[in-house]
Amino acid sequence: MSEENQTLAQRKEKAEALAELGVKLYINSFKPANCARELLPKGDLLQPQQAEPGGAVYSIAGRVLAMRKFGKAAFCTVADGSGQIQIYLKLDILGEAVFETFKKWDIGDIVGAVGTLFKTKVGELSLQASEIVMISKSLRPLPDKWHGLSDVETRYRQRYVDLIVTPETRETFRKRVEIIRLVREHLTRRNFMEVETPMMQPIPGGATAKPFKTHHNALGMDLYLRIAPELYLKRLLVGGFERVFEINRNFRNEGLSTRHNPEFTMLEFYQAYATYEDLIALTEEMISSICLAVNGSMKITYQGQEVDLTPPWTKLTMDEALLQVAGIPAAVLADDAQVMALAREKGIKLEENAGPGKAKTELFELLVEDRLINPTFITRYPTEVSPLARRNENDPSVTDRFELFITGRELANGFSELNDPRDQLSRFEKQIADRGDDDEIHPELDADYIRALEYGMPSAAGEGIGIDRLVMLLTDAPSIRDVILFPHLKPEAGLTADRDEDGGQ
RNA sequence: GGGUCGUUAACUCAGUCGGUAGAGUAUCUGACUUUUAAUCAGAGAGUCGCGCGUUCAAGUCGCGCACGACCCA
After folding, report:
1. Is the shortest CB-to-strand distance from A430 to strand B under 7 Å?
2. CA A496 – CA A502 distance, rounded (Å)
3. ipTM more than 0.90?
4. For the whole prediction, is pTM greater than 0.90?
5. Which of A30, A247, A314, A359 ranks highest by number of CB atoms within 10 Å?
């Protein structure tokens, strides 16, 4: 014990002292009948220093966040899941013995109180406790009540502490839950059915990314954590489920950044007999209405930038974007050789087999993406970079595909689906032939997917929306780690469980 | 992978030219029965991220490492 920090040692002593007074430290018999949010409005009916007429008895439970002690009386700010309420403890009412146990309370303890309501002379509704209980004794001190917890590493590693002391963090994750609920509701109302497809796949398909590899012992085979659910969802279209969606984790074995976490949440949805234009309309309506529901306005601020999500949103073809936003002359865009030359001139490294489609896409990423602050759909993506999208009827070099950009970031990607098994097979084969030196990316031929298409997949359109990025946008979060409860970090050095000889129960 | 910055008490942070480690909050003791960043008086609390080096002397200078943040690839 002597090796620990002082506070931890002192609290353990207090815990022992309480135990000697006959107070149990970790009970599960107290069930609060009320919560802060429910009681607080009752204060509107009271004048300062007035007790609630009728003297109804309420009970609450929560964590002590602050204490103001006066020798023979005290105020405690207690937080439960719904909010905060103050309890008032008085020697006269509780009696010597109980008040003595209260003196061993600490900030951070989870306690229960039973009592009546009154308003203090400064006008704060308070529960005057007639009974108090210790529900769970806290052994570690909470961060500074005024400055809070600002060390981001601790906020990510010990999210539980962050959630206790940072209201903004609680708010962000409540919003996240609400956003996902609204997405689900939006699609369900339109007769989409929510499904679950494999997270472990023998062939990681549906995107180009490095997968995580794992091994199934009983089957004696390698499996990959999915990089996308796309090919399974489209198998369901073949099966006759005409509108499906999945909100779940994808895994990509790549770098971490403020926009990338190795596991992230993706919405994918597929609608039979629809085109990418239908999905553009759906996306615009869904995201703008969710923003309105969550933020009370379609005009928001993201990291100091004004963003207006009021529909209709801008729609530009990739060529139009390159012309209007990047100022690349139409004559250059129309000439494959000039496009390739321009890309090289801008320092873009193109693989030997890369064509003008790849070059345009790279130029777009370099010169246009960052500048698309208000929502913008970019359409007519080159076929070369869209292995799963349907070719445009009039121009087979581009696909019926779009991506959505907001605050310079890709938020959604959708297209009319390729359902011709012959075209799909040849594009898979090209993808495999073009595989670079990178052994970690495995474009493998998913023969079963081709077989599924051979049974006939209805015409359809499908889309993926990055949920984490959507939540970042709508909660004004600068980093993806701020919208993921437990983001990935390297293990903490030197962390061991405290195994004090008498610390356990 | 590269660059920049950071790591000092439980939390938030100071620490000058290299010369005994500081504050506020929290904690502990005492006073205080309507406070709310309660107040007043007193006290305790440090592996200065880790290691090596330079020096009579290192939180401070140098090198390496760990972890984190941001930027770049």
Report:
1. no
2. 17
3. yes
4. yes
5. A359
